[in-house]
Amino acid sequence: MGRGKMLMLLICLVVGAMSGVKGEDPYVFYEWNVTYGTASPLGVPQQVILINGQFPGPQINCSSNNNIVVNVFNKLDEPLLFTWSGVQHRKNSWMDGTPGAQCPILPGTNFTYRFQIKDQIGTFFYYPTTSMHRAVGGYGMIRVFSRLLIPVPYPDPEDEFNVLIGDWYTKTHATLLKLLDSGRSIGRPAGVLINGKTAKGDGSDEPLYTMKPGKTYKYRICNAGTKNSLNFRIQGHVMKLVEMEGSHVVQNTYNSLDVHVGQCFTVLVTADQEPKDYYLVASTRFTKVVLTGKGIIRYENGKGPVSPAIPEAPAGGIAWSLNQFRSFRWNLTASAARPNPQGSYKYGQIPITRTIKLVGSNSKVQGKNRYALNGVSHVDPDTPMKLAEYYGIADKVFKYNTISDEPPSNLGSITVTPNVLNITFRTFIEIIIENHEKSMQSYNLDGYSFFAVANEPGRWAPEKRKNYNLLDAVSRHTVQVFPNSWAAIMLTFDNCGMWNLRSELAENRYLGQQLYISILSPERSLRDEYNLQNTTLLCGLVKDLPMPPSYSS
Fold first, then answer.
1. Where does the Plastocyanin-like domain lie (predicted)?
2. Which band of pLDDT confidence, cut at 50, 70 and 90, is reported for residue 167?
3. What is the pLDDT of residues 330-372, one digit of tens each?
4. Strand order of the sheet with strand 140-145?
5. pLDDT in tens, 213-263
6. Looking at the whole model, is its pTM more than 0.70?
7. I need a labelling partner for 466 at 20 to 30 A (CA). Which of 64, 80, 86, 183 fits?
8. Are 498 and 369 in contact (CB under 8 A)?
């Protein structure tokens, strides 16, 4: 067993014993102090968001089915929320950390997140959903290991390394926010970071990680940036892809991977080259000006400096990236978080009960820039929509289905309002996302994983279903949509709650390119959804209302 996994399992066993509840899944506890600090990620001192003095923030380590407890002390001067991107929060959107589901943690106060990572494994990350906070830090890795009795389809690595990549602005989040609120764009990032910094390449850089010759290592890679797709590669080494956003995949090898905003990959890398230093490289894709970030990995007892020749990104553009997407396949024989093989779920044989086609758009509203889906640009009400539902006052806060299942003929006309789509519990839905713009898009759905069955250029039409992968599409929670292209996803909406479908691009999301999907329990049953917790923060119209009747068992 690799050193990293052995340590992780020991931690989980210890905290499990500390929980003191016989037969209950183990608990993992964290306490976070969230503050401002000064750092120079690109050589320019600037304000960043720190968690326990760290940028990026501390990693969350756990195993499948562990209960996670994170006590967050907000020492910023603004409200704060964290979301746990990729964590499904079964029956528990109360802990999803989006403004539509949860009241913010006010300055000078604390809130304790409590959630279970039920039947999941893989690589995920957390980040703040409030304001433009993610653009200046507050993000970190979530590593979810398989339980001891569930086999993993590859040998234990010697160790595990986190690689958080992302574009970066040298402006403060307050400056970025003022630009957006004034109707302007935040413009182009200043650079690209790898684990919060970039190597100078002048011989003074310390390595991010050290590898022993001949050993194999697991690299967990997430694009935690705000705008750009990034190509990731390791100088002189190939990467064997083994997992993607909670799913084991067919183990193909790659010289580089396009990692779109919000996406995570897990790869195996063998230290089989000449013992010396090598670059990790992340560079922007599909941009006129290519920005590049670097980090160094070192061989133990290596004698040579890093080669100055940085490996180039693929010469092919969108076509190359699209073909790489099509090469990703679900590993049908591997177990994930449960003992049964992933392929035992025959999603391609389930009848579609509803098709929702979403088209993004961008237009001016009262002279200011807004982004929308099907002509509706979301704005967060003062009362979180999930709380309004639970307290029975939804009609005072928002209207369901302002957005239609088909895009309007005039996408230039935008309505600014809370954007909530109601979907019937346990129905199997097809969602088409078209991108009519000239830039990349990336979308994330909270509370679920979906099957990304197609990604093609042009416009979608029903006859395009013949091109769907109905056998081994990867089950994941993000999907990229290429310029002037479309993507199709399919899933069963079996997780009650208020779940955010959003653009992962910070500017688009903040200016309205998102919606919430409401899945209601038909019987207000605890079998479908947890009750509001006594510690849940209350705000807006529900703050002084009496507690509604609890769900029944």
1. 33-146, 161-301, 382-522
2. very high
3. 999 998 787 788 888 999 999 999 999 999 999 999 999 999 9
4. 60-63, 140-145, 122-128, 82-85
5. 999 999 999 999 999 999 999 999 999 999 999 999 999 999 999 999 999
6. yes
7. 86
8. no
Asked if 72 and 104 touch (Cβ cutoff 8 Å), the reply is: no
At residue 417, φ and ψ (nearest 5 deg) are -165, 160
Length of the chain: 553
Quote the tokens at residue 186.
């935040």
Instruction: Read off the DSSP letter of residue 19.
Output: H
Question: DSSP string of 212-243?
Answer: -TT-EEEEEEEE--SS--EEEEETTB-EEEEE
Which amino acid makes up residue 426?
R
Residue of 315, 293, 317, 297 whose CA lies nearest to 306: 297
Token code pair at residue 228: 């750009």
Look at the alpha carbons of 532, 533, 534, 538 in this order and tell me if their dihedral is positive or negative.
Answer: negative
Q: In what order do the strands lie in the sheet with 277-284?
A: 209-211, 292-299, 277-284, 230-234, 256-259
Q: How is residue 434 written in tokens?
A: 């078209």
User: What gap in Å lies between CA 294 and CA 182, rounded to an integer?
Assistant: 34
C-alpha distances (whole Å) from 427 to each of 175, 351, 354 are 43, 9, 8
Distance CA 459, CA 420 (A): 25
